[in-house]
Write a structure and sequence with these properties.
61% of the residues lie in helices and 7% in strands. It is mainly alpha-helical and 799 residues long. The two termini are 101 Å apart.
């Protein structure tokens, strides 16, 4: 339906066509109405004609047109054939006029016959019967129209078959002929629209538009010479554009549109276009992968893909998109994946080329899982190779943890910025990191524990609480990767004990925060002893508060104060008992505390550990200027000797203190050979010998009142390190024994291979098959189990 209003308005129906739009007159019950669009009379006369026609057709006042004063529905009725008969020679008389008008349209001239009259004649021929029974006027009209169009199309052949050296000029001529043909075809169809709606509709012959297209296709574009020149010319222009030259894109777009309309695009043009594209990019990819740097090559590949996508937008049909992009990606990406990765991936990672790696990921993502799988594998191999170099280099142990943190931070950035937090890349990062960090048994766990200790000690004042928390989180990430978590626990517990007992912890909150992180990571069993250490320190404070009240009622020797930490042996690291001769005042205080404690807690035994004791001494060395010295117990014992002696030998000091020789050497070295020298040594040297003699340094001077002397017990000796590692190994042996006995007690009888498998499944720390076999042999000797009498490879549990 259509609505209109206003004076002198007309109504038309529109019918769309791929190449043109035109207007058709509305057919009414009579078949002789002229096309309104083509009337060449003045506007007023057109209106009069319409009014007259309306009155003739609708004598009762009913009309399909809408008056200027009201709006009504437009009613379109079926076409009816008039009952009038045409003369038998009507077609012969009318055809010359129609042919003359047809040739005028084809040649671009003006027809001498009025278009209204021509339309009436065609309407009569198509809708009115004739006396001639031998032939149908519509059939004659259609056949003669075909003949004229056939002859006209062939007139283009001499022009298009003419030799020309310039392919661009040739394409422009062909494009001009095609555009003109489209316009003429549209005009002819409008003139013969009634023929299309009547005869063509029922005779199953091509429409006038299709007839024109078919003739152009048959005579012009299916001519091998013309077709080859056209396609080769288009391909040449595309090749020039690919070389960076400027071309006429509209020309290519029009010609490709022509091939599509003529149904020749997929058959004639697309195969040649895809073949030329494959040849170009195959040669280009093979050449450039050898000459360009990988980053430059990736940029080139990305630019090429964008260019081809622009061609699809501008003139290449979208039906070619999948094949075209696949050819480009296959020839410049897929075929060179191995070269791209082997030649430049590690270099780009080492140089932190985030943009290039991100581009590589995006390009590989285009070709599916094949490219991404290879990229993921290369990423994992890089992590293992680079990380292994960090781990196995013994000379860089001091820097290992810091370098691991930097390496992990770098990989996380690549994961986020380049691989868009892809889950599979994240998994390969974790697996590869875990693989290389455990290649060196126990050492990474030990160094990570020491790194945590270094951050939590009070000497680490450059970091705020928030920064300290972030560093601990990063160290915890490294902790997750190590298998020997029991090694970490042993060293962490030993260092925590020193921090708590010597009072060198940076922050109690930070300590408890780290403990909570470990508990969340490894569970209650892992942190139960560590939590017990904190409880002991809190209980010790309560005990000392009660002891101070008890102390005030007693006679205290000298001006001495004492704080004792009471430790539960199972929670704390194992310390070797050491002996030393204490001053009488300290011995008396020990006795007072021992009696006080045992009176409160019956059935317990106190064992004094001197290795972690520390003292604050007050005194002077020069001009009676009071200084305070923070020293270890061993350092204090040595210094106090010089209250009664001016000069002492090494052997004298050893006999008066009874300090073990290794500890005594370290203590004397800290007092006589360090930056702050309270003792003078003869002869001068950096090492302590049994023949050395020591005197008090009375010329000592320092700007501070309270002076901290290097406390040797805070430094871990190689012997302590080895001892800690050996205790971990021994604990593992106990755990293996317990696991084997637990399994055999449950299963009663079990084959050797199955027993080994179940032991590996239960234990979380790294062990070898040889160690498990050794522990099984030990249990056999101790008669926890025995070999079956029927099969030596089967074990039986001994109750």
């Amino acid at each position: 339906m259509s609505k209109t209003s206003g004076k002198n308005s007309s109504i038309r129906l529109k019918r769309d066509h791929p190449n043109s739009s035109f207007e058709e007159p509305i057919s009414s019950t009579k078949s002789s109405s002229p096309p309104i669009k083509k009337l060449k009379h003045q506007h007023n006369s057109t209106t009069d004609l319409m009014d007259k026609e309306t009155r003739n057709r609708y004598p009762n006042g009913s009309s399909s047109f809408i008056s200027s004063n009201s709006t009504k529905k437009l009613v379109i009725k079926n076409l009816k054939t008039s009952s009038l008969l045409l003369p038998s020679d009507y077609f012969d008389k009318i055809w010359p006029l129609l042919k003359q008008a047809l040739e005028a349209i084809l040649n671009g001239t003006t027809s001498p016959t009025n278009e209204e009259q021509l339309y009436r004649h065609i309407d009569h021929l198509c809708t009115t019967s004739t006396n001639d029974t031998n032939s149908s006027p519509p059939t004659l009209l259609y056949d003669n129209l075909r003949k004229v169009l056939d002859e006209h199309i062939q007139t283009f052949l001499p022009i298009l078959l003419n030799e020309t050296n310039d392919s661009n000029d040739y394409l422009r001529v062909l494009n001009s002929i095609w555009n003109d043909h489209i316009i003429r075809s549209s005009l002819i169809r409008q003139l013969f629209i009634v023929l299309d709606r009547t005869y063509v509709l029922h005779a199953a012959v091509p429409s006038i538009w299709e007839l024109n297209q078919d003739l152009f296709r048959r005579y012009i574009m299916q001519n091998s010479i013309i077709s080859n020149r056209c396609i080769n010319g288009i391909l040449k222009l595309i090749e020039q554009e690919r070389r960076g030259e400027t071309i006429d894109r509209n020309l290519i777009k029009n010609l490709i549109r022509m091939l599509i309309d003529l149904h020749l695009y997929r058959k004639d043009f697309e195969p040649s276009f895809l073949q030329s594209t494959e040849e170009l990019y195959h040669n280009e990819g093979r050449q450039l992968i050898q000459t360009l740097e990988i980053s430059q090559y990736l940029i080139h590949v990305d630019r090429r893909i964008r260019e081809e996508q622009a061609r699809l937008t501008n003139y290449i049909d979208q039906s070619t998109k999948v094949q075209l992009i696949h050819i480009v990606e296959n020839n410049i990406i897929t075929l060179h994946i191995k070269n791209i990765l082997s030649k430049g991936f590690n270099i780009l990672i080492n140089e932190n080329r985030y943009t290039s790696i991100a581009l590589m990921y995006d390009l590989f993502l285009r070709i599916g899982q094949v490219g991404i799988s290879d990229l993921r594998e290369a990423f994992g191999n890089y992590i293992k190779t680079y990380g292994s170099a960090l781990i196995v280099d013994v000379d860089k142990d001091d820097k290992m943890v810091d370098e691991l943190l930097e390496f992990k931070e770098k990989l996380d950035r690549f994961l986020h910025e380049c691989f868009h937090d892809n889950e599979k890349f994240s998994n390969i990062l974790k697996d590869s990191f875990e693989h290389f960090i455990n290649q060196r048994t126990n050492k990474p766990a030990e160094l990570i524990a020491k790194a945590v200790d270094a951050r939590l000690r009070s000497g680490n004042k450059e970091a705020s609480e928030e920064e300290l928390e972030k560093i601990l989180d990063k160290l915890l990430i490294l902790f997750r990767f190590i298998h020997g978590k029991d090694v970490f626990e042993a060293f962490y517990k030993k260092d925590l004990a020193k921090r708590l007992l010597v009072g060198k912890s940076a922050s109690v909150d930070a300590e408890k925060s780290m403990l909570l992180k470990l508990k969340q990571e490894c569970g209650n069993v892992f942190t139960s002893k560590l939590e017990g250490m904190f409880k002991d320190m809190e209980l010790s404070k309560d005990i000392m508060t009660a002891f101070e009240q008890h102390w005030h009622s007693r006679e205290v020797p000298g001006n001495i104060s004492m704080f004792v930490s009471v430790l539960t042996m199972g929670f704390w690291p194992t310390y070797q008992p050491v002996s030393a001769i204490l001053p009488a005042e300290l011995c008396h205080l020990q006795e007072i505390f021992t009696k006080f404690y045992l009176s409160k807690h019956t059935g317990r035994k106190l064992q004094w550990q001197y290795s972690l004791d520390h003292c604050l001494l007050k005194g002077w060395l020069k001009e009676k200027t009071i200084k305070e010295f923070q020293v270890s117990l061993y350092q204090a014992l040595v210094l106090l000797l010089f209250n009664q002696h001016i000069d002492l030998s090494y052997k004298d000091i050893q006999e008066h203190t009874k300090i073990q020789e290794a500890e005594l050497q370290r203590t004397l070295q800290s007092l006589a050979c360090g930056k702050i020298r309270l003792l003078n040594k003869k002869p001068l040297s950096k090492d302590i010998n049994v023949n050395d003699r020591f005197t008090l340094n009375t010329s000592f001077d320092h700007k501070l009142i309270r002076i901290k002397i290097n406390q040797v017990q805070l430094k871990e000796t190689p012997e302590e390190n080895t001892s800690t590692t050996e205790r971990v190994v021994q604990d593992r042996h106990y755990q293996i024994d317990a696991a084997v006995v637990r399994i055999m007690k449950t299963r009663k009888t079990l084959a050797h291979a199955q027993l080994i498998s179940e032991v590996f499944a239960q234990l979380k720390f790294p062990i070898s098959t040889g160690i498990v076999k050794t522990r099984i042999e030990s249990l056999l000797e101790r008669e926890y189990m025995k070999r079956s009498s029927d099969n030596a490879n089967v074990y039986e549990y001994v109750a």
